[in-house]
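Two quick folds needed for the group meeting slides. Do the first one here.
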Amino acid sequence: MTQGWELSETYESTSGRVRWQRLGAATAPPVVLLHGTPFSSYVWRGIARAFAVDHRVYVWDMPGYGGSAKFEGQDVSLAAQGRVFRELLDHWELTEPLVAAHDFGGAVALRAHLLHGARYRRLALVDPVALAPWGSPFFRLVGENTSVFEQLPPNLHGALVREYITTASGPGLHPAVLERLATPWLGDEGQPAFYRQIAQAEQRFTDEIQERYPSLDLPVHICWGEDDTWIPVARAHELASLIPAATLTLIPGAGHLVQEDTPAELTAALRTFLTAAGNAG
């Protein structure tokens, strides 16, 4: 269930080495998938393979996440990730791909577009971090006390990470999936990286772009798990009201981690939007 998802390509970004992979035919229409926090491209594995039947799919682990570089002093903020995404689009020579972004990745895609000139043919946002205020009580507690949490014994840290990731799912995660999502945050490299990314997750990075959402001039579709306990479904309606002509799909039975909870329903919604007539290539 968790085998066969390794990113073999690398790119030396301004925030460290990025692991990435391309699936599908080189001549097919391009689709780029962005993960959120504290996840990795692994959450997109099934949907990426489904799109790769008739698309050229790009997946990547952001600096500080998954299989990409993690090191002391690393800038893994939303500001840095937005810049790195624009770098990658240039590296891949993609001028106007289809883009689907989850959670923190939604803010990354929005920043790259609104602040760094990245162009997309269509943009799908899945339970995105996009509106103030954000950050659960746990997230804020850890962010304000990272120096304390970094000192947790490895077994307690591991239990905390697994429990935290579990709460992103509505029906619950398969144990093997949970372990795969938790593993990058364990060990001498992973433990400090987990707290580093939380410490740098500042709301000001979405505050900088929130007032620009009404200026978005591309097709945008929002997908949201109705049972999302991390970001309430009310935010889906709020965000849709701010973006001109944005459309919205609410997905029953899904929590925040929609890719794991209802992959078939999410794949259907994304394919319907991203491959709309005249917009797939």
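Then this one, please, same format:
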Amino acid sequence: MKSNKKCFHKKVKFDGDSDSLLTPCFQINSDVVLKEIPTTGEEYLLRVIKEREKFSTVSKCDKDFSKFAKNQSCFVEELPHSKAPDNLRPTIEWQNIQVADFSDVRMYVSRMLSKKALWPDDVLKLELNPNNIPAWKNLFEKDPKLSCVLGLHSAMLDRGLEILTEILDDVKPGSTLDHKIGQWIYAFLACTRPPLISDTTSILRNLARKCAEIRSHLDPDDESSKTAAVPLNIFICLVSRYFRQYDLAD
């Protein structure tokens, strides 16, 4: 069947002396005069062409980077990530179990978030100044409850997890994190909202690196170190495999 549609092809003639493949899309009559305020389509096109001629075809950055301070960089410097001793490194099977269990907890939290009308009254009563460190630490001395974390918005979740990571700086070499602090970290991770923004990702990576650092100070020859490494391995596993920071994985 023969189509009735007409095709119009633009004939392009290349100039061998020109080093440009740019060709005009519209032809403007030579009688068109450049006006301050165009009144026709051709006058408007002529004005656009004249304004474009004021700029170079290829733009380049002319900033003098030598004026930057020596301690400034356009790149973010990654902190080192301590590797696990062979006898403290978790198996991939163990890590898969942790990710599966954590996924179930996250699913439960998601269902709770979708039913705010059914929340108990104490969920929405937690109010903290994000910069009040003593208030945060006072909260973390209590037993962690889902009602204390579920009502926090993303920025507060990030801030709480950031402070929990800073608390890990107090862990002495050869020791592991406090059980209650570990429960709080797990609760904050379970309530962290997707999709992750860059700040949240940075906090999660800092947590994994801090846990790896604490683990690196455990005595691999001490039988109790295997138990001490468990919570550290869990958080490294969740950050790397659930939150997809795979370069930090064991």
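Slide caption for protein two: The longest helix spans residues 92-113.
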